[in-house]
Amino acid sequence: MSTSERRDFEERYSACFTDFALKTVTGLLIGSMFGGFFLRGYRRWPMYIGGGLGFGRAYSNCEDSLNTFLLSKEPRPCVIK
């Protein structure tokens, strides 16, 4: 892997952590607002569902991003020394 390819992979990998944080926190906030406004009281389960949905969506996006990068490379045979 060349230096520019390694840098691109590292940028994608670090963007995944940012995506995880933003989508999970956004899901938690939307879930807590849904629980507070629409269910007439503070309920925790909408917050957990929102956080889980945000986390799952971020995982899916990260997996797609890293797989497209890794699968675009030319496969090399594994040599055991």
From TrEMBL:
InterPro entries: Mic10. The keyword Secreted does not apply. It is a single-pass membrane protein. This is MICOS complex subunit MIC10. The chain crosses the membrane at residues 20-39. It is found in: Mitochondrion inner membrane. GO terms for cellular component: MICOS complex. Component of the MICOS complex, a large protein complex of the mitochondrial inner membrane that plays crucial roles in the maintenance of crista junctions, inner membrane architecture, and formation of contact sites to the outer membrane. Component of the mitochondrial contact site and cristae organizing system (MICOS) complex. Belongs to the MICOS complex subunit Mic10 family. Keywords: Membrane, Mitochondrion, Mitochondrion inner membrane, Transmembrane, Transmembrane helix.
